[in-house]
Write a structure and sequence with these properties.
2 copies of one chain form a homodimer.
Chain A lengths: L3 E4 L3 E3 L18 E2 L3 E5 L2 E6 L1 H7 L4 E4 L4 E4 L1 E3 L12 H7 L4 H6 L4 H9 L3 H17 L2 E7 L6 H17 L3 E9 L4 H4 L4 H19 L5 E4 L8 H13 L3 E6 L7 H8 L3 E4 L5 H8 L4 E4 L1 H7 L7 H7 L3 E3 L13 H10 L5 H8 L1 H5 L18 E4 L6 H4 L6 E6 L2 E2 L3
Parallel strand pairs in A: 1-6, 2-7, 8-9, 9-10, 10-11, 11-12, 12-13, 13-14, 14-15
Antiparallel strand pairs in A: 1-4, 2-3, 4-5, 7-16, 16-17, 17-18
Helix pairs in contact in A: 5-6, 6-8, 8-9, 10-11, 11-13, 14-15
Chain lengths: 417, 417
C-alpha cells in the first residue's frame, strides 16, 4: 500500500486534541501547524509530522503539493435538506416585500409547495436534482453531508427520498449521513380532518420508522418541534419511538420562539438540537449539562432577514458543544457555501475563527456521532481533507462569499471538481 | 465586421428603458425577456430581438450559446478600494471578540495599517496584488469596477496607487474607473502636530488634486466625511477644489452616524453619496430631490456585525436612485461576490430582485457617470454582459454565496476566467 503525503501547506489545521465535542471550545486554538505534512494510507491519516520525517518514514510515497494553501479537515455539514424538487426562489422576494409565512403559503409557497412537488417526482429525478447540489457543497469544502428526508410526508415518498440519498452515496465520494424527517410537518391532507394530525404521527411511528429501520435507510430520526408544527409531547412521542427502533435523534428546536425543544433534546439524549435562535436560558443550561450538540444555522436567519441570531457565545461560554451547518434547503437557506457560514459565525455570532472551524469539523462530526471517524487531521481518522487557497486560517471567513476551496479528499480520494 | 449573437438564454434581462438612474425604481421590472437574443458588433450591442430575426439581419454571425442561462448587463461595481497591500484578516476576529475600532488601531490595525503597508510597496507590487482580486470580482459578474486610491495619503503614494489602477486597466479587459481618495483619512504623521490636519488638507488641494488631474489619473474625487475623519466643512473644501479642477465627486457619507454627508453630496451635485447606513430623514429628502445616486454597501454592515442597514426602501420610495456595490476593501468588506450583495439587498434591505439588479447595473453605471455607456442591454450600449448559470433572474440572489457566473464580456470581449 503506497502512502500519500500532503506537503507544502502554509498551515495544517488539525482540529485534533482532546475531544472538544463534549465541552466548550472558547478561544481554543484549532491546532494550527505551520511546518507540518500529513501522511495518508489506505484512506486513513497515519501521521502528522514534518515533511522530512514523513519522507523518511514513507519512502516512495506519492506527494500532493498543497502549494502554500491551508489544509483543514473536510468540513462536516451536519444539517441539510438537500433532497427536494424545484427551487423556491420566488419566496425570497415575497418575504422582502413584507409577506409572512402564511401569505406565502396562501400563494402556493412554503414547505407544502416542496411536498406537493416532491411527491410528483420519481426517485431518479430526485437523484438527478440532488447530484449537482451535493457537488456544489463539496466544491466549497464539505466532505461529510447529512441529508434529511421530510418533503414526502407519506410512507412511499419518505422512503423514496431516503432511497435517493442511499443511491447518491454510491454516486458521489462524499460521506452522506441520511436522516429520516417524516415529522418535518403535518401534511396538508392530514390537517383536513380532525384526527388527521394524530393519524399522521401514528403513521410515522407504526409504519415509517419500522420501514426506515428495516431498510437501513437512516441513521437519525429528526423532528420539527415548534409552534404550528409538532408540540413538545408529539416530538417526544415520535423521537422515543425512533430511539426504541434503533435510530439516533436530532431535533429542530427553538428556531423562532422558545418552546422547550432544547430541553427535550437534552432529556432524550439526542445527538443534536438544531437552529436554537430562540433558545431560552433554561435550554442553554440543559444543553450545556448534556451530551447534545447545539447546531447553529446562521445562514438561515440571514436569508430570512431576521435580526436575531442564536446566542452562540452564551452556549459556548456555558459549556455546550456548538456545531455549524448550512441548513441547505429550498425555502430558507439555499447556500452551498459553508465557509460563508463561518463568516457569519465570526461576524454575527462572535465566535473566534478557531471556534468556528472546530464547530464545522470536529463538532459537526459529533453532531453526526462521527466524532471518532472524521473532522480531525490526526492519526486514525478518515483522510477527509479540504485544501483552501489562503495562507492563514483567518482568511477563510474573511474573504467572505468567495470560493477558496481548491480541492477536497474523502477517505483519501479526490472529491471536488 | 462580423456580428456575434448571444442566443438560447432562458432570460435576457435588459435593465433598459427610461433612465432609472434619476428616479425611484420601486418594483420596476428589470426588463425580463424570455425569447430574446442579443446582437453585438464592434463591441457594441446593436440589437435585441428574437434569434430568428437576428439571424436574418446578421447572416454569418458567430453565435454564443447561452445554454439556457440568464444573460444580464455586466454588473457595475461602483465602490471598491481594490488597491491595497496586505489583507487584514486578523481584525475580523478581534471585532468578534468585542474589540472596537480604537482597540484595533492600538494593536496596529485599522486603516493606518493599510497605509503603512502600502507606502512600503512598489507600484509593481500593487499591480500584482490587485490583479487576482479584480479577476475574482470579474468571476462573480462585474464588468465595470470603480477603484479608489486612499491608502497612500502622501503625494507620491496616492499617485502610485492611481498609476497602478491605470496599468491594471491595460492588463485586464475590465472597465476600471479610477477615483482619487486622498481624503480617505488624515495620516498619522499629520495628526502628530497641531496644524497637521490643515496642512494635509491643503496638500490634497494644492498638490495632489492638480497632479492627479494633470496626469489624467482619476475621473472622480472622493472624501470620507464622518466623525473622526473629515468634517462637513473640510469635505466641502476638498470636493469644491476637486470640482473646480475638473473631477466629478463622490462622498463616503453617514456610514455609522448621520453627519449631513448626504445633504452635502446633494448640495455639491456629487455623482454619488455612498454608505448611508445612518442617513437622516433630511438626507433622504436631499438625495431624493437631487441627481446624486445613493450607493449602498450592505456587505460592509454584515461583515462588521452591525444590526443597522441603510434605509434602502425609504430612499427608493422617496424617489432616490439607489445603487449597490461591494465596497471591496481589506478592512470592512473583503468580498468579490457581487451577487451576494444582491442577496443582502433583497433579504436585508427589502429590495425586489429587479430593483436589486437595476441597482447593480444601470444605477451603478449612473453612480459612475456611465449611464449611457454600460449597465443596459440595449442598442448603442457597450457589449458588457454577464451570463449566469440559472434559469430565472430570481435565482441570482437566491442561491446565496454560490458562484453562478459562467462568463462575462466587456466591449464584446470574453473576460472572466
Amino acid at each position: 500500500m503506497t502512502a500519500t503525503l500532503f506537503v507544502n501547506a502554509s498551515q495544517v489545521v488539525t482540529c485534533s486534541g482532546p475531544p472538544r465535542a463534549r465541552r466548550g471550545v472558547e478561544l481554543l486554538d484549532a491546532g494550527i501547524l505551520t511546518a507540518a505534512a500529513v501522511a495518508v494510507e489506505g484512506g486513513r491519516i497515519v501521521a502528522v509530522a514534518g515533511a522530512a520525517e514523513l519522507r523518511r518514514r514513507f519512502p516512495g510515497a506519492e506527494e500532493v503539493d498543497c502549494a502554500h494553501g491551508v489544509l483543514t479537515p473536510g468540513l462536516v455539514d451536519s444539517h441539510t435538506h438537500a433532497i427536494f424538487g424545484k427551487s423556491r426562489h420566488e419566496e425570497q422576494e415575497m418575504r422582502a416585500m413584507g409577506l409572512d409565512y402564511m401569505d406565502i403559503a396562501r400563494r402556493g409557497g412554503g414547505i407544502h409547495a416542496s411536498v406537493r412537488d416532491l411527491r410528483d417526482r420519481s426517485e431518479d429525478d430526485l437523484v438527478a436534482l440532488a447530484l449537482p447540489r451535493l457537488r456544489r457543497l463539496a466544491q466549497y469544502g464539505a466532505t461529510t453531508v447529512e441529508v434529511k428526508s421530510g418533503y414526502g410526508l407519506t410512507v412511499d415518498d419518505e422512503l423514496k427520498s431516503l432511497r435517493a440519498i442511499q443511491r447518491l452515496s454510491l454516486l458521489l465520494p462524499l460521506r452522506l449521513v441520511p436522516t429520516f424527517l417524516g415529522a418535518h410537518e403535518i401534511p396538508q391532507e392530514a390537517r383536513a380532518y380532525p384526527a388527521g394530525r394524530a393519524d399522521y404521527l401514528s403513521l410515522i411511528v407504526k409504519e415509517m420508522i419500522p420501514r426506515v429501520v428495516e431498510g437501513g435507510l437512516a441513521r437519525f430520526a429528526d423532528v420539527f418541534c415548534g409552534p404550528g408544527v409538532l408540540t413538545i409531547d408529539e416530538s417526544r412521542a415520535v423521537l422515543t419511538a425512533a430511539r426504541e427502533a434503533g435510530l439516533r435523534l436530532k431535533l429542530h428546536a427553538d428556531e423562532l420562539r422558545p418552546s422547550g425543544g432544547a430541553e427535550l433534546a437534552a432529556a432524550l439524549g439526542a445527538t443534536s438540537a438544531d437552529h436554537l435562535a430562540a433558545i431560552s436560558d433554561n435550554g442553554i443550561r440543559a444543553l450545556a449539562a448534556s451530551q447534545t450538540v447545539a447546531t447553529l444555522l446562521p445562514g438561515t436567519m440571514l436569508f430570512l432577514g431576521k435580526d436575531r441570531q442564536a446566542p452562540a457565545r452564551a452556549l459556548i461560554d456555558g459549556g455546550a458543544a456548538v456545531a455549524l451547518a448550512t441548513d441547505f434547503n429550498p425555502g430558507t437557506s439555499p447556500t452551498p457555501n459553508f465557509p460563508l457560514i463561518l463568516t457569519l459565525a465570526v461576524s454575527q455570532l462572535h465566535l473566534s475563527v478557531s471556534e468556528a472551524l472546530l464547530a464545522a469539523t470536529v463538532n459537526g462530526a459529533a453532531a453526526l456521532d462521527l466524532a471518532h471517524e472524521t473532522g480531525q487531521i490526526a492519526a486514525g481518522f478518515s483522510a477527509d481533507l479540504a485544501l483552501f487557497d489562503i495562507e492563514d486560517l483567518r482568511e477563510l471567513p474573511y474573504w467572505y462569499g468567495d470560493r477558496r476551496c481548491r480541492a477536497t479528499w474523502v477517505r483519501g480520494v479526490p472529491c471536488a471538481a
